[in-house]
């Protein structure tokens, strides 16, 4: 039996983790007074993943099992759960993309454990240049409940989060229907007026998707949709903390305003997790991934072509720049998204049931995975087989 002494990232207490044959046997509070070498907490949960490690949820696959590579690649980085994210496309294409995700989940329990739902970002967003970001204008449209039901059926009922803009007529009724169906509604890629945002919150919208991105380059000083979303106390906000999408001072302001309602997403695209270099991307065309993880159009470092980081790198960005405490950064990447999307699930909020991530903290404050457990079974590092 091996015993690891580690500090909880959440309650800061010291625990003894007893390991037996690659499994956790028990976790108990320790009376040891020395500061432990390790930190642990729930595995990270990324509610916005378009792709990773060269695989793209938004592309039709020759074999849908290819999509499973994303779960394994993210797991090694401590992201034990995520929501595959399908973005604006034609009605038929969105149906097909959700269909292949549903097949993936049917194929093995391991995928159902790492993928508790899907995120639909679009097509009911703003058609305006700026707010729409890289979403293709031709497919952007007003909310359509019949279409949504078609997609939800293809998805096997697994769409748990939708990002839309309440600037369309009919948005409020649509939001209410989503909320009744248990789907979390997020405001994003929006050009909505103040009153439309207020009404969306009354109808049940609870999140802002990657606040501060998917927005105009230049905005009227006030009123504008950033102030409106910051002012709404009921709205949580997700942010991309990769060092490129938001300046540090903007993260500081969002953090101070949203407090315990701010959380992290990666919004990673397929090239995330790939070696630096030049690539041909399906969205964006010729792009460059820099050594530092910035993904931009070739020859123009100012035009971002998506996010190329995982959630662990987001947490490390916050810690390295002293933007939050470790407890807060860890909550932003794990319990906060869990509690927002699955408030009734005990599974991710108790030590007995959640995935666990055990890390070492480097001198520059960054976290490096040491061991990762799913259902208390060690999944990282992979053990050599006994044959
Ligand atoms: Zn987006």
Automatic annotation (TrEMBL):
InterPro entries for this protein: Amidohydro-rel, GlcNAc_6-P_deAcase, Metal_Hydrolase
Amidohydrolase-related domain residues: 42-339
Record key words, sorted: Carbohydrate metabolism, Hydrolase, Metal-binding
Domain of life: Bacteria
Family, per entry: Belongs to the metallo-dependent hydrolases superfamily. NagA family.
Designated name of the protein: Amidohydrolase family protein
């Amino acid at each position: 039996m091996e015993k690891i002494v580690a500090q909880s990232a959440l309650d800061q207490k010291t625990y003894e983790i007893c390991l037996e044959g690659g499994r956790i046997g028990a976790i108990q509070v320790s009376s040891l007074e020395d500061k432990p070498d390790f930190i642990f907490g729930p595995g990270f949960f990324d509610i916005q993943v378009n792709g990773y490690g060269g695989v793209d949820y938004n592309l039709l696959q020759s074999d849908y099992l290819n999509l499973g590579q994303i779960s394994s690649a993210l797991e090694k980085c401590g992201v034990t759960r995520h929501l595959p994210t399908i973005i604006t496309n034609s009605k038929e294409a969105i149906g097909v993309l959700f269909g292949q995700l549903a097949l993936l989940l049917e194929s093995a329990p391991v995928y159902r454990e790492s993928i508790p739902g899907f995120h639909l970002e679009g097509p009911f967003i703003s058609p305006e240049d700026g707010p729409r970001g890289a979403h293709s204008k031709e497919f952007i449209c007003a909310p359509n409940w019949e279409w949504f039901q078609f997609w939800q059926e293809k998805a096997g009922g697994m769409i748990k989060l939708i990002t839309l803009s309440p600037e369309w007529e009919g948005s409020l009724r649509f939001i209410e229907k989503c909320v009744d169906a248990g789907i979390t509604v997020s405001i994003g890629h929006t050009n909505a007026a103040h009153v439309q945002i207020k009404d969306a919150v009354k109808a049940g919208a609870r999140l802002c998707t990657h606040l501060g991105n998917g927005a105009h380059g230049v905005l009227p000083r006030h009123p504008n949709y950033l102030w409106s979303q910051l002012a709404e106390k009921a709205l949580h906000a997700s942010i991309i903390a990769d060092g490129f999408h938001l300046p540090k001072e903007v993260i500081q302001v969002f953090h101070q305003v949203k407090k315990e309602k701010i959380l992290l997403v990666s919004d990673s695209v397929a090239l995330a997790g790939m070696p630096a270099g030049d690539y041909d991307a399906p969205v964006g065309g010729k792009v460059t991934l820099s050594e530092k993880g910035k993904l931009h159009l070739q020859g123009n470092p100012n035009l971002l072509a998506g996010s190329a980081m995982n959630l662990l790198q987001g947490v490390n960005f916050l810690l390295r720049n002293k933007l939050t405490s470790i407890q807060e950064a860890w909550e932003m990447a794990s319990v906060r998204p869990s509690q927002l999307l699955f408030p009734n699930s005990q599974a991710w909020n108790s030590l007995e049931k959640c995935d666990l991530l055990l890390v070492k903290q480097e001198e520059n404050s960054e976290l490096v995975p040491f061991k990762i457990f799913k259902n208390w079974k060690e999944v990282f590092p992979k053990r050599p087989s006994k044959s």
